[in-house]
Amino acid sequence: MLRWAGIRNFAHTYNCTALESTANRFILERFKEVAKKGNEILKLTDVELEELLSSDHLNVKSEEVVFECIVRWIQHDVKNRKQYIAKLLKCIRLGLLSTTYFIETVKKHRLVQDNEQCKPIVIEALKFLYDLDIVGQEIDFNNPMARPRIPHEVMFAVGGWSGGSPTNVIEAYDTKADRWITVDHQDRGPRAYHGCATVNGCIYLMGGFDGMDYFNSVRCFNPVTKEWSEAAPMNSKRCYVSVAVLDNCIYAMGGFDGHVRQNTAEKYTPESNQWSMITPMNHQRSDASATTTGGKVYIAGGFNGQECLNTAESFDPATRQWTMIAPMRNRRSGIGVIALDGLVYAIGGFNGITRMNSGERYNPTANTWTNITEMYSPRSNFGIEVMDDMVYAIGGFNGVTTIFQVECYEPTTDEWYDCTDMNLYRSALSACVVKGLPNVEDYIDKVRNQVMQERRRNRP
């Protein structure tokens, strides 16, 4: 990673188009690391830096990262580079910054205050942010100041229970624009209480229920070709199944086959298109949830046919054994479990009495659970995923009705934030994230997409 600039310059000098394109894509995708680590970015010219920071494909969680990169680059040679602050400031999508950050950090920065050319930029940004905060005006994607970058990963919410019956609707979430779009290429049949996983850029749906039948079938959607195909079926029918991915293999655990709650588990290898049984879990579990971190599979909560569970266990592929870990602080069925930064989060669910908005996280090293801030909406049987280092809770059932509300959790601040609602009320859905789609623009907000296409047509 440390020599990406040299590789790009070599490729450009010797007209190695493919290599230059690969280097550029690497820089854009790994920009957060590139901007903060090493000195390669400090070697760029003002023109090269401007081109990089202006790209719609720059992968940043927040525009704050872009401003911090500009400051770091200028401070490397303040005397000769401070003159470029105004033109580099225009590379930032200032309208996407928080008003507080813009006023306290950008506007008050010495480099900005000492440059007269920055004043009209600051005034325009303040007016834009004022209209958003005070007037309540919606963000205009046509305004270059607020045009979202292209996401490098897209979250898909698939199937579920809506309006009294299962659905096959798929929605894609454009995290940069905070918008959901409905995907046209749905599977042939509805599916709820199923599992969803991403391997090698493809989305696998397994198990579940269509209102009459319990499934062991597996369907595969390729978001590039937009085609569905049949994969090998699981060995057991599994509704309320828990699914996780480890080393490009899919693990399907527990569930309900229409007769009994299961403790069996199996592993799918895409290359051979085969399922193989693994060691059974210590407990029967349906309506549990699973994730992976540190080379192990973790599963928590669920329902055994008699009570909601607070137990949790982990599977080590090296030993092929399940090990009980510390129990959660709450019983949780219809729970959401996900790993982030080496910790396992257990969110929401049903404790046998009420739907919960509480959450807790597990530290594998300490073998302990600690509480986190509560969600805004209580929910069970919802989708859960991680994007941009945040945990997303999607839809679900609040004890009265299915919901379409989405919220995300920021671990560094221990806070939940509201996101844009899905288009469809639903519970019993499953979610997954696909990274690096070459046709990602097919799954972003249509209004924003139209703006981008217009820009390309008008480009000289």
Automatic annotation (TrEMBL):
PANTHER family: KELCH-LIKE PROTEIN 31 (PTHR45632:SF17), LD33804P (PTHR45632). Residues 4-107 form the BACK domain. Pfam families: BACK, Kelch_1. One of its GO terms (biological process) is proteasome-mediated ubiquitin-dependent protein catabolic process. InterPro entries: BACK (IPR011705), Kelch-typ_b-propeller (IPR015915), Kelch_1 (IPR006652). The keyword Repeat applies. Keywords: Kelch repeat, Repeat. GO terms for molecular function: ubiquitin-like ligase-substrate adaptor activity. It comes from the Eukaryota. This is BACK domain-containing protein. It comes from Helobdella robusta. SMART domains: BACK, Kelch. GO terms for cellular component: Cul3-RING ubiquitin ligase complex; cytoplasm.
